[in-house]
Amino acid sequence: VMAESGSWQSEKWSRFLLLWLYRLARLLSLLSFPLDRDELQLKAPKRGSNNRILSVLWRCLVVLIYAGVWPTLNAHLVETKPQSYAELFAALQALSVTILAVVSFIIQAKGESAIREVLNRYLTLYRRICSVTRLQYLFPFKFVVFFLLKFLFTLVGCFHELIPLMAAEHFGEIFQSVAVIFGIYMWLGTLFVLDACFLGFLVSGILYEHMANNISSMLKRMQVIESNEASNRLSKYRKMQLLCDYADELDELALIYSELYAVTLAFRGMLQWQMMFYIYYNFINICLMLYQCMLRYLQHDETALISLAMAFVKMANLVLLIMCADYTVKESQRPKLLALDTVCSDIDQRWDKSAETFLCQVQTQRLEIKVLGFFHLNNEFILFILSAVISYLFIMIQFGLTGGFEASNDVKNQFE
Predict the structure, then answer these.
(1) Which of 127, 261, 263, 392 could be cross-linked to 365 through a Cys-Cys bond (beta carbons 3.0 to 4.6 Å apart)?
(2) Cα 271 from Cα 197, distance rounded (Å)
(3) What phi, psi does 308 have (nearest 5°)?
């Protein structure tokens, strides 16, 4: 009873957090589709309706404004007019983030219908898995823990990035004030989409985990068929009947696995640019934070520790996303480790065929989470990022030893 009560509490909190996220997405103009709680689906508005046309016009306006105010959002990280080679290097990094942010936002703004389709497929899978596994609650306590941990890192980073925008000089003129307010509003929407990348992989991993646990539980129930104990011995007819039932159940699980594989790939494909921006943005921010830390340290500024702490926060964001993607891939391959091809083999051809077909499907549908085909999101990629950060540190140290942090007339002349 206590275990069931704990499962219900985690499920209740998970549903509350997901519903809160849906409402926040509506507030940030990321979703315009109402939720039908009875059917558990997002409803599309009628084609050509006034709401849809206004939504498209609004998004076009938002993209233009976003492209205009992004430099203001990023201005606190670098100098407007670089005076040293280190400042010039940091300004080029910030410029690359600006370009990628605008491209990512355009793709995000035009892909709302695809987001609705993928979310509806996830909701349908949730109901199917609940039915097949006979579980009332799918979301474990770790979902709430990881969700809140990611939310904490996002909140800390958000405060650090948005507080400089609240300075009085940004509200001196009415147009500048409106630009800052719009910028903050749209930047919150961007952060929401970036965190949705993490959340989608976490949900896929949990669904894969429940499916693998259900197969493992089924195999344990099948042990009675091979039992030679007199008290558990079954007739041949009863064994054949049970194996046919288990074969039907495995065929249903194979269909769900296939749909879960397809929807995970659809999610990855839909948010590839956002994931690329997520990784690049956090990596560049780590580099800029380390640059600020070294610069402030050389200036004997005690706030250097704040920049160092923010670099760790950005690194934690990356690690959570990568570990979550790696967790999803590993859970998708768990059925290969189960003894499906040896349990009750050579007793009934129906079961043997179902088990062989399922294992071939799992082998064929090998999940890989790549970002634009460049790299895999797995735990080894964390080491690659760490090595890149260390290399950046050595570059910054070389800048410091060769006077790169000092003002240069050549750089000044380029921006006068």
Answers:
(1) 261
(2) 7
(3) -65, -40
